[in-house]
Design a protein that fits this description.
heterodimer, A: mainly alpha, 71% helix, B: alpha+beta, Penicillin-binding protein 2a (Domain 2), Beta-lactamase, 2 domains, seven-stranded mixed beta sheet, five-stranded antiparallel beta sheet, 23 strands, 19% strand, elongated
Chain lengths: 366, 630
């Protein structure tokens, strides 16, 4: 064996076989659905393949980064992210009524993307550091670390991203052992504050919620997306209309059908049986992730693996729930299915971290 | 803290973490269950509902308008036809700013002020989502310009449309009528009749004339294309098609050339003329002057042209043959003579001595004869040929108004003839009853006197006079005039004769009728009132002249046509049939302010007879009409 091939085999040995198979299966389905949804557009398909290649490369790299190294990247990333969020609040570009983008001259950038990974990493790093002496005040600090970016993103305003980020932070605190009485107390408090939150919501956010409750109230405007995607899914029936045979998909009735609404295309063309299999694939990934978490040697590894797994499913749930009319329309892509480079890279980066946790078993010294 | 407690702590921590993992797994299972339940609801429970909605999203029913039937004259000359042309149409709901789009169109192609006015009127009558034509009959160049600038003209589109064209000119307008854009009132009518579905693809409907009365035959049945359309409404492919059934073609009894001859014979005069086949009731010509250009109405008339037509003192929109009511004057005399004979009040040989006036017993009022000094000794035949007023004054008094009414009613006076056109007037046949009902006044004997010469309350249309004259020609059969003689399904190619109108036989003693006819022939013979109009004719004519007063002439004053303004001159009337031994054509002419029947009305009838019976065409007659090749 040459040195190079030996090196490659060592790098690849950090991949988790089962996760890899599940991810590749999902990407295969994604390729088929995006091909159908884009009307077999060669540009879309090749773009999708390039994104997949890049993201898989990132995954392999991340799988080889030992968790203890990874944990040190968290805090600086978090600080940078928060500084950028403040920058957005001060100098950000307004698009569609909210201030989310930072213009870096050569590209527009959403700092909130950065926090999606930086927040769990930082929290996991923080709890790992204080593992031996975990007290209530550590959860208090963790809560503050969560709230700072959450509130900054909320006032952009970007309710969807803020909630998704809040969920990932909450999962981490939960797995770190956040006491049940705090969780229930917070839940009750949250429910009680709903009317206040409602009154603080922006018009378009209120409208979105109202449209969800009654999509027919605005069938040509805000409700159009939901109505058309529910029709697509419902008309798919048990076995679907067949690949590239969905009338709602092929005749342009579904908006954003390669990205946020890709599940509508899937549901129409592959039916309820297809949806069960797809959800099954997500559940299998989550199950594998939770097993990795259970076996992880360090608290950092456990927390990251469990949080990333739950987070992935939350995204999948929110997206499918939105497309099928169960949840409000928040711009969340379907993990590993929607077309889009940034999201795919972030997701496979997370998968890489999971694999790294799975394959770096020796106890590291903190 | 000892190492042991630390380890124990770690164990406890790990156990708690595993517990939390289970909670996390349960949470995920819960979310997954929610998704699967939602999927089950949408894809299994509600599947039928959603498949139906997807189908109605995908499939649109596009109406396919049938082509309208043609209208041909008796020799298959095309009077009304269709052609397809490009129109520029705007939909208000699709424009961002209507005025901006209009201004932009104006810079690209020429839009006349009239087109703009018409557009605004149509716009004000239509809904936001309806397309409204701005300019029709675009040239190829204009179509190309609009197509190239489509992106600058939101809400504007070029459409290929079928249009109606009336190449027969203004003279035929009162027969054919015209089609116009379907308006709210038409739409309501269609809805009430349950015919709305059949007009889904149609923009036009018959508004007047034959176009209106034969609408149900001419229109045809709308077809429907099932199209697969995408979200933007663009048709992707056709799924199925129910072909439209084209409207039926109509062949008229009317001879377009005869109509043109009659038109031309009127010269500058206004008036109406009806020529009938006395045996079938077929309308050979139906003229109302002035005419108008029916093509103006097809795609909406602009308000100023409409105003000009509507307010013209010549009233071109009134069909005089059908709706114009005039006192029949002396044209009623042959019927009165027949009534006198049939009721046993006169014998043909009974004579009177006409001193030039008539007075009722115990009255000094003089009802004058048109001829000063009177006609002397007058029998029945002479009373017709000389048009002796005093003879009929006396006959009317002997008959009484009620018997006069009842007898004349058999000839259709005071009643619609039942022609296959809408909007006919019924005229007025006076009676004691009528006056009581209408005015709540008693009947005066003097009113009977003037009723005897067709003056007073009497009102008739030229069409009614033609039917009455036809009864004299055919021996007493009252016919319902018909314009359409046959109908053709353009797919089947064969002409189906239309059933003729109703026929009512009025019993008339042949010898009585013969005397009256002789009197009418005498009218056209040397010494008769219209002898000049029969001079040189190779066939024999029977006729009767008449005049209808426009202004009353005072007692003791004289009517002097040359001293009156033209609009105050009498209307000239003439009824006639020919050839007398076996009549094939009957004509009733009314010339507004024509002065005397013999002077202006009879020569027009002569021109019609000449053309119809001998084929003689007057000089300068130009008729440019295609014939139907089928």
């Amino acid at each position: 064996m040459t040195r190079t091939s030996h090196w490659i085999v060592r790098r690849l040995s950090h991949l988790d076989g089962m996760l890899l198979i599940l991810v590749l299966l999902l990407l295969g389905v994604s390729l088929a659905v995006v091909a159908s949804a884009s009307g077999q557009s060669p540009a879309r398909i090749s773009g999708h393949l390039i994104n997949m290649g890049l993201a898989l490369g990132v995954m392999v790299v991340m799988a080889n980064v030992p968790p203890h190294l990874l944990s040190r990247v968290g805090p600086p990333l978090f600080v940078a992210g928060v500084v950028l969020l403040i920058g957005v609040a001060l100098f950000g570009e307004v698009r569609n009524g909210s201030r989310r983008w930072l213009n870096l001259g050569f590209m527009a950038f959403q700092p909130s993307e950065l926090l999606k990974l930086a927040l769990p990493l930082t929290l996991a790093w923080y709890f790992q550091r204080n593992e031996a002496v975990l007290r209530a005040r550590h959860f208090l600090v963790g809560g503050v670390l969560l709230l700072v970016p959450f509130l900054l993103i909320l006032r952009q305003p970007d309710l969807g991203t803020a909630l998704m980020l809040g969920a990932s932070g909450f999962y981490l605190l939960f797995f770190a052992g956040l006491p049940w009485k705090v969780i229930f107390g917070g839940g009750v408090l949250g429910a009680a504050s709903l009317p206040v939150v409602w009154s603080l919501m922006h018009d378009y956010q209120q409208r979105r919620v109202l449209t969800l409750l009654d999509p027919m109230s605005d069938p040509l405007g805000a409700g159009y997306h939901i109505i058309q995607s529910t029709i697509a899914i419902g008309s798919g029936g048990l076995f679907g209309k067949g690949w590239m045979q969905g009338t709602q998909s092929q005749l342009d009735f579904i908006p954003e059908r390669t990205t946020d609404f890709v599940f509508a295309v899937f549901g129409e063309e592959f039916g309820y049986v297809g949806a069960i299999l797809l959800i099954g694939l997500y559940l299998a990934i989550v199950a594998r992730g939770l097993v990795i978490a259970a076996r992880a040697p360090t608290l950092f590894g456990r927390l990251m693996a469990a949080t990333l797994s739950l987070n992935l499913f939350t995204y999948a749930f929110v997206n499918m729930g939105m497309v099928s009319g169960l949840l409000p329309v928040v711009g969340v892509p379907l993990p590993l299915m929607s077309y889009g480079g940034t999201a795919l890279i972030t997701l496979l980066l997370g998968m890489g971290i999971l694999m790294s946790v799975a394959t770096h078993r020796q106890l590291n010294k903190s | 803290m000892s190492f042991a407690t630390q380890l124990k702590n770690l164990d406890r921590e790990l156990a708690r973490f595993h517990g939390r993992l289970k909670v996390g797994a349960a949470f995920v299972a819960l979310l997954a269950t929610a998704l699967l339940a939602r999927g089950f609801y949408l894809q299994v429970v509600q599947h039928d509902h959603y498949i139906q909605r997807a189908e109605s999203n995908r499939i649109s029913r596009v109406p396919a308008a049938p082509s309208r039937g043609l209208i041909l004259d008796r020799n298959d000359r095309i009077l009304a036809e269709n052609y397809s042309a490009y129109t520029l149409e705007l939909t208000r709901a699709k424009t961002d700013d209507l005025e901006a789009t209009l201004a932009m169109v104006g810079t690209l192609i020429e839009i006349s002020p009239g087109q703009l006015r018409r557009f605004r009127r149509l716009l004000s009558e239509s809904h936001e989502f309806e397309t409204v034509p701005l300019k029709s009959k675009l040239t190829d160049e204009e179509v190309a310009i609009i197509a190239a600038n489509r992106y600058r003209l939101p809400g504007a589109e070029v459409k290929a449309r079928l249009f109606r064209n009336y190449q027969a000119g203004p003279g035929m307008a009162h027969v054919l009528g015209f089609v116009g854009r379907i308006n709210d009132r038409d739409l309501k009518q269609l809805r009430d009749d349950g015919r709305e579905q059949n007009y889904k693809g149609s923009a036009h409907i018959g508004k007047t004339g034959l176009e209106r009365s034969y609408e149900s035959l001419l229109h045809g049945r709308t077809g429907f294309d099932q199209m697969e359309t995408d979200a933007s409404g663009r048709a992707v492919r056709m799924l199925s098609r129910i072909a439209p059934v084209p409207g039926k073609d109509l062949r008229l009894h009317l001879d377009a050339e005869l109509q043109a001859v009659a038109e031309q014979a009127f010269g500058d005069y206004l008036g109406g003329l009806v020529a009938l086949d006395p045996n079938t009731g077929g309308v050979l010509a139906l003229v109302s002057r002035p005419g108008f250009d029916p093509n103006l109405f097809v795609d909406g008339i602009d308000p100023e042209t409409w105003k000009a037509l509507n307010e013209s003192p010549d009233r071109p929109m009134v069909n005089r043959a059908l709706r114009g009511v005039y006192p029949p004057g002396s044209t009623i005399k042959p019927l009165m003579a027949l009534a006198g004979l049939e009721l046993g009040l006169r014998k043909p040989s009974d004579s009177i001595n006409d001193p030039g006036f008539y007075s009722l017993p115990n009255s000094s009022h003089q009802f004058r004869d048109w001829k000063r000094g009177g006609h002397g000794v007058v029998d029945l035949r002479r009373s017709i040929s000389q048009s002796c007023d005093v003879y009929y004054y006396q006959l009317a008094v002997d008959m009484g108004i009620d018997r006069m009414h009842d007898y004349l009613a058999q000839f259709g006076l005071g009643e619609k003839t039942g022609i296959d056109l809408d909007g006919e007037s019924s005229g007025l046949l006076p009676s004691r009853d009528w006056k009581k009902r209408r005015w709540n006044k008693p009947w005066y004997p003097g009113e009977t006197v003037i009723a005897g010469i067709g003056q007073g309350y009497h009102l008739t249309t030229p069409l009614q006079l033609a039917v009455a004259a036809a009864m004299l020609a055919n021996g007493g059969t009252r016919i319902e005039p018909r314009l359409v003689q046959a109908v053709r399904d353009p797919l089947a190619h064969a002409w189906q004769p239309q059933p003729g109108g109703g026929r009512v036989k009025v019993a008339i003693a042949p010898d009585h009728l013969a005397v009256v006819r002789e009197g009418m022939m005498d009218v056209m013979r040397p010494g008769g009132t219209a002898a000049r109009s029969a001079a040189g004719a190779p066939y024999a004519i029977a006729g009767k002249t008449g005049t209808a007063q426009v202004v009353g002439i005072k007692q003791g004053a004289r009517y002097e046509a040359s001293q009156l303004a033209r609009e105050h001159r009498d209307h000239a009337l003439f009824i006639a049939y020919a050839p007398t031994e076996n009549p094939t054509i009957v004509v009733a002419v009314m010339v507004e302010n024509g002065g005397s029947g013999s002077g202006t009305a009879a020569p027009i009838a002569r021109a019609v007879f000449d053309y119809y019976l001998t084929g003689k065409r007057p000089g300068g007659l130009k008729l440019e009409m295609e014939r139907d090749a089928d």
